[in-house]
């Protein structure tokens, strides 16, 4: 997989889209040290300070659920050798209750973009997120070369991409956390408070409020 390193950009996903439109051969990955307009799910701002790993993997078109699981598992497997992390369904990477990484999947014509952000060497976070965000440095007290974490992440994505969906889901199912109360924000503006009891291979949810198709869920708001 070809690698494109950028010091700073608006968003690695947006840069990846520009590269696709410019005819760059797929697959490839864009990696940046800093984003000025990083974004997460539902267009929410992803604060992307220097010291983090911000990456966008461009693959030939695959299903969004497969892409989401590849991204979450790759981030999890990259970090698990350094500290105890978990995947909070569907794609947040947590240390305890604090977020250390996340995944954003976007589709374009002919390509799938898996954006993966990991907080690596940040020493502090802005006031509005310092209670819910953490970094590898803050948790371990040791700084790691971002390039080293990037190399591990790229290998994990490449390895997972080769597996069939059933194997990827089995790995994901073993480590994903469904614990806790949440609000399901559904298409049409409906909100449902529930606890998730189980998920199936389609990521459809069996909850205390009934069964929900994953494709009908806009986003999940977790309540501790």
From TrEMBL:
Residues 1-165 form the BPL/LPL catalytic domain. Signal peptide: none annotated. It is an enzyme of class 6 (ligase). GO terms for cellular component: cytoplasm. It holds the Pfam family BPL_LplA_LipB. Keywords: Ligase. GO terms for molecular function: biotin--[biotin carboxyl-carrier protein] ligase activity. It comes from the Bacteria. The keyword Ligase applies. This is Biotin--[acetyl-CoA-carboxylase] ligase.
């Amino acid at each position: 997989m070809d690698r494109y390193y950028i010091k700073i950009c608006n968003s690695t996903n947006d840069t990846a889209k520009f590269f696709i439109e410019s005819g760059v051969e797929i697959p490839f990955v864009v990696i940046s040290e800093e984003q000025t307009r990083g974004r997460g799910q539902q267009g929410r701002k992803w604060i992307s300070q220097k010291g983090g790993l911000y990456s966008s993997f461009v693959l030939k078109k695959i299903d969004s659920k497969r892409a989401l699981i590849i991204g979450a598992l790759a981030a999890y497997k990259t970090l698990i050798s350094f500290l105890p992390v978990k995947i909070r369904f569907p794609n947040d990477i947590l240390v305890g209750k604090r977020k250390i990484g996340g995944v954003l999947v976007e589709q374009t014509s002919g390509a799938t973009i898996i954006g993966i952000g990991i907080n690596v060497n940040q020493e502090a976070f802005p006031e509005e997120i310092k209670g819910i965000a953490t970094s590898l440095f803050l948790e371990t007290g040791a700084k790691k070369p971002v390039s080293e974490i990037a190399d591990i992440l790229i290998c994990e994505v490449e390895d997972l991409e080769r597996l069939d969906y059933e194997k990827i889901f089995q790995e994901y199912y073993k480590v994903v956390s469904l614990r806790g109360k949440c609000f399901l924000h559904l298409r049409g503006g409906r909100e449902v408070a529930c606890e998730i009891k189980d998920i199936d291979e389609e990521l459809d949810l069996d909850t205390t409020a009934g069964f929900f198709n994953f494709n009908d869920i806009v986003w999940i708001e977790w309540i501790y």
